[in-house]
Task: structure prediction
Amino acid sequence: MDNNLHDYRKSYEKSSLDRGNLNQNPLQQFRSWFNDVEKSGSLDETNAMTVSTIGADDFPKNRIVLLKYYDENGFVFYTNYESEKGKALIDNPKTCLSFFWPNMERQVIIKGLAEKLPDTVSDNYFASRPKGSQLGALVSNQSEIIENREVLENELKSLEDKYQNKEVPRPKSWGGFLVRPQSMEFWQGRPNRLHDRFRFTLIDDLDWKIERLAP
Result:
C-alpha cells in the first residue's frame, strides 16, 4: 500500500494578519474571526473545537466538542464530568482548545485553565436542550465499556417511557466547563508557508502581551 502523501499541498492565499488589523483584545479578535466564518456560510459547525487533556495514563488526548458560549471570561462547553475528559480536567485543569477553519485558512489555539460551571448555569443549559439530547445524557455513562449498542438503545427506550410526560432532570455527573484563557494564538495561512502567527499571553491576570511568531 502506497501511503505517500508528499503531493498533498495547498497554497494559502485568502487573507493576511498583521498588527494593523489585529484587535488588541484576543477575545474580540476571536469574535471577529468566528463571525467571519459564520457569515461565510461555507463551514458546518463553526463552533467545533478540539479539547486536549492529560489523562491518568499521562498521555495527551484530543477530541472534538462543540463550543456553546464564549465571552470575556472564556470558553464554555458541556460534557459528562465522569467521562475520560471530565475526570482529566478535574484532576488537571490545564487544557488546550483549538479551532481550524479551513474555508478561511485560519487556526486559533487557546491554552487555559478549566473550571466547573455553577450548577445553576448547567441546569439552565440542560433545560434548553432537545429532549432527545437530555435523555442521551442520562443513557450514556460516557467512556465506560459497554457490551453492545443494544444496551444504549434499550436504556433509551426505557427512559423515553419514563419521562414521556415529565421533565428530564440534569444528571449530577453532567455539566459545563469554563476555560479561562492564559494564551491565545491566531494563525492565518499565507503563501509559501510563511504564515502569520500572533500569540497573546496574559500578564498579571489583566493585560495581554502580543508577539509575532515565526511560522
Remarks:
- The two ends are 33 Å apart (CA to CA).
- The CA atoms of residues 74 and 133 lie 24 Å apart.
